[in-house]
Amino acid sequence: MMSWVILKEFFDIGRWVVPIPVTLHALRHKRNTAACAGWIGVSWMSPYIGSALYLMFGINRVYRRARKMADQHTWEGRELLVKYRQVIEGNLAPLAKMLGRLTERPLMRGNSVKVFHDGDNTYPIMIEAIQNAQSSVVLCSYIFRDDVVGEDFAEALINAHTRGVEVRVLVDGIGSGYFRCPIQRRLRKKGVPCARFMHSIWPWKMPFINLRNHRKILVVDGRVGFMGGLNIGAENVLSLKTKIPVADTHFLVKGPVVHQLAVAFAWDWSFTTGETLKGTPYLPEPGPVGDIPMRVVTSGPDMDLEKIEYGMLQALTLAKKNIRFMTPYFLPDERFSSVINLAAARGVVIDIVVPQRSNHRIIDYARDASLRPYLDAGCRIWMADPPFNHSKLMVVDDEWSFVGSTNLDVRSLRLNFEVNLEMYDIGLATELSKFIDSHKKNRLTHHDIDRIPFVLQVRNEVFRLFMPYL
């Protein structure tokens, strides 16, 4: 009987002691006041459960781990990149300067780029590059299916490994399969190093489930790079006529900027496996190939938090004439929405191209509930015809292009690990603008929103509440 009394006393004392470290930690580390106040409130209202939840979900262990890596690793080649540094003049000069300070990467001249649409046109070029690899192949993909397309990539990677090329493959721990990852098993069986990003079945690591590596990177011999929105799977080959075909846009880049792309992969690989990729096979001395200034911009819930979003916000602020967006999912937060609408209010022509129907209906419902304020501000919203287009493109004033893996939603801008490429080139901007304009078929109006049945409007508003988690 006495033991139960003593236990109850300890329990009562704990109700007042346990929330204290949570409160102190939240005050020091939570910059968002709403999140800080919320965690403190939960820990005091339900000390044991609330504190346990904070321990699991409230502490950004990814940031702490990234800081530790930054102290331990110095990537090669930074001094070589100085001679390719490019200075931008004109209206967008503040954007280039800001992103340089934010990313600590120079804007680099001497690059070339080719634009490819859909897996039909892109996959053969990527596989050919792997087949011609001499020293290294590094590949990162959110989705890497073990289907007819994945088999072709796997065969090329295995053959490269067999002939002595250094091959490293990184797939996401959720996107490429949580309980089973067939492509990893296929590659490892043949000796190809393949890792799964932030994958764990242990409860104390479950918070990492919400933090995904959404990047798509392929670098061959440290000199040829591919990046964009294209995953690896049969659904991206339109000629195969799968159930839900996916159109997309991908980019082939050459020049000094490929070094930045390779370092982005090396960081993720070291973060996942602890292995440091260095030396000539992975990071050879860069050389000029073209004349386009470019820079890689990464973001994630680590030391790169919100960097892609900040770049977009700065571009929106500096825009003078027009802004074009093409995105598969359009669910920006209130801050991002306000900047878009303010740009429209001052006379900037803003076109937002989204699919009539994406591959995630719930996201469509939430998106549809959020579109009216953009129309009120004067933005033009276009609903693209099928097939579902997964491209992520932004063009400002027919001069600056921002492309890559980032969707315009809270998940991509705040939670996912993403990679984008900024390019200052009128020719490329014109090409991408024409592509975006070719999908401006069905303009959304206030009348279209008003005639949605009341029940469906309520449904959409309900799903809008879950916007940060979609």
From TrEMBL:
It is an enzyme of class 2 (transferase). The keyword Oxidoreductase does not apply. Keywords: Cell membrane, Membrane, Repeat, Secreted, Transferase, Transmembrane, Transmembrane helix. SMART domains: PLDc. One of its GO terms (cellular component) is plasma membrane. Could be a virulence factor. This is Cardiolipin synthase. The gene is cls.
